[in-house]
Specification:
By secondary structure, the chain is an alpha/beta fold. It has two domains: about 150 residues, FAD/NAD(P)-binding domain; about 240 residues, D-Amino Acid Oxidase, Chain A, domain 2. It has eleven helices and 18 strands. Strands 1, 2, 8, 9, 10, 11, 17 and 18 form an eight-stranded mixed β-sheet that branches. The protein has an eight-stranded mixed β-sheet with strand order 5-6-4-13-14-15-12-16. Strands 3-7 form a two-stranded antiparallel ribbon. Strand 10 and strand 11 form a beta hairpin. Helix 2 packs parallel to helix 9 and helix 2 runs parallel beside helix 11. The chain is globular and about 65 Å long. It binds flavin-adenine dinucleotide. Flavin-adenine dinucleotide (FAD) binds next to helix 2, strand 12, strand 16 and helix 11.
């Protein structure tokens, strides 16, 4: 093991008040708010990858707060109050991102969001291993029999509270009444009379096939995930946060009133407190958490001449998502084709999911348009038995802010602010 110089020991590797494990969006936003709330804190972020290497630089860049079909299902599983709290966190998170960075630095564009309702996916609903309660609702055209094979069973109290069948969004009357209901509920969050509106006339304009209805949400935007992470890194470094890359924290122990953190690098690091923001990888340090990793796969097409749409698009409760990337299309999802296979922290793409994405691309998004696939990748999300993030003190030295349930771009600023407030106000273990 190479010996550290005294300079290194007193700067890069100096004992810190707080060490944050993971430099994804949650780790970075947490560092930002910790410094805002307590500027004198010394903070070091330890990142296992050369750059943030979980989901934050590998996602789709939607600045979104939930498509109608996803909200309908989540309301049944979480209960309406919790769902609205979650949506509010996401909505406020997007506002904070825009306020702090503006548009240009993070490639933010506001072309609105849309949900496609239709027959685009024959994805079989097999038994999910993650977020079973929240992401297994059948496609709109699924049969009542298929419905009963899902394990989307809400807690008893909620089931009793709801007491009615899930609305069938492929039925125009039920779709309209769900839109009305959520517009009424979301008004106090978005300030808009109509967060969601039917825009079926745009189906043809956008060139989609096999789509029955299109719901527009003008409050959604899209951003460049790499630029957002870079901008955040620059911001927290300018506030005095120390970031060490390419070494993971492998374990920790309490020694003489502080924490000794073991790293892959070989040298232990010392901190008063540790904040775990490793999301899908958090079980390594905190195996007791209710977290299940969920791989998300993505592809990006070649440039398409005259691409007829802009915006971020959801399908099948957000299991499929696509957007314009200039004149290219970024498409991701289809995890519900193979829940078990995709319950993994292995960063890889598979033929099964990629083939399904290509099918969806050809049959729904770009029917009859020539395209090739130029990029493919995957990232790892954290799901669990419910969608609320876990923000808590594990003990007096260790805190965590994890489980973003696939929507961490929007959630991370608020999650970071909440955990920073908890840590600086002497949060009790929860
Ligand atoms: C394909 C895909 C598409 C998505 N699309 C969207 C979207 O459009 N909009 C949206 O809101 N959300 C989206 N998400 C989800 C979003 O990206 C995540 O919720 C968010 O990035 C989670 O941030 P995080 O900081 O909690 O976790 P991560 O970004 O996973 O960060 C955790 C970090 O911890 C590091 N780490 C792991 N173990 C250790 C260790 N032992 N020591 C030190 N470091 C460690 C990892 O390398 C990683 O950098 C998507 C995710 C995927 C995979």
């Amino acid at each position: 093991m190479v010996q550290q110089s005294v300079w290194e020991k007193e700067s890069f590797f100096a004992p810190a008040d707080i060490i944050i494990a993971g430099s994804g969006l949650v780790g970075l936003w947490s560092a930002y708010y910790l410094k805002k709330l307590a500027p004198s804190l010394s903070i070091t972020i330890i990142e296992r990858g050369l750059i943030p290497s979980g989901a934050s630089t590998r996602n789709a860049g939607f600045a979104c707060f939930g498509s109608l079909s996803e909200l309908v299902t989540d309301a049944r599983n979480l209960g309406m109050d919790q769902l609205l709290e979650l949506v509010d966190m996401r909505y406020r998170g997007i506002k904070k991102i825009k306020k702090i960075f503006g548009s240009e630095a993070i490639g933010y564009e506001k072309h609105g969001g849309y949900e496609l309702i239709g027959s685009g996916s024959p994805a079989p609903k097999n038994t999910p291993a993650a977020n079973s309660a929240t992401r297994t609702h059948p496609t709109p055209q699924a049969t009542p029999e298929a419905d009963s094979t899902t394990d989307a069973t809400p807690p008893d109290s909620q089931a009793a509270e709801q007491g009615s069948a899930a609305p069938d969004l492929s039925d125009l009357d039920q779709l309209r009444s769900s839109i009305d209901e959520f517009n009424r509920l979301l008004k106090k969050i978005t300030g808009q009379q109509k967060t969601f509106r039917l825009q079926n006339e745009k189906i043809g304009e956008f060139g989609f096939a096999n789509v029955q209805y299109l719901i527009e949400n003008q409050s959604e935007g899209q951003l460049h995930s790499g630029k957002l992470c870079q901008a955040l890194i620059r911001l927290v470094q300018s506030m005095g946060v120390n970031i060490l890359n390419n070494t993971g924290i492998t374990g920790y122990e309490k020694v003489h009133g502080h924490l000794l953190l073991h790293t892959q690098y070989g040298f232990p690091l010392i901190a008063q407190q540790m904040l775990v923001t490793t999301n899908a990888f958090a079980l390594q340090l905190l195996p007791q958490l209710d977290i299940t990793p969920a791989r998300g796969q993505v592809l990006v097409t070649s440039p398409i001449e005259g691409l007829p749409f802009k915006g971020s698009f959801h399908f099948d409760e957000g299991f499929y998502y696509f957007r314009d990337l200039g004149d290219r299309v970024l498409l991701g999802g289809a995890r519900n084709m193979a829940f078990e296979e995709e319950t993994t922290t292995e960063m890889a793409t598979t033929e099964r999911i990629q083939n399904e994405l290509e099918r969806f691309l050809g049959e729904v998004i770009l029917p009859g348009r020539f395209h090739t696939i130029e990029h493919r990748w995957s990232g790892i999300m954290a799901m669990g038995s419910e969608k609320m993030p876990i923000i808590k003190a594990v003990n007096e030295h260790v805190f965590c802010a994890v489980r973003m349930s696939g929507m961490g771009v929007a959630l991370a600023p608020i999650v970071g602010e909440k955990v920073a407030t908890l840590m600086t106000s002497g949060g009790e273990p929860g």
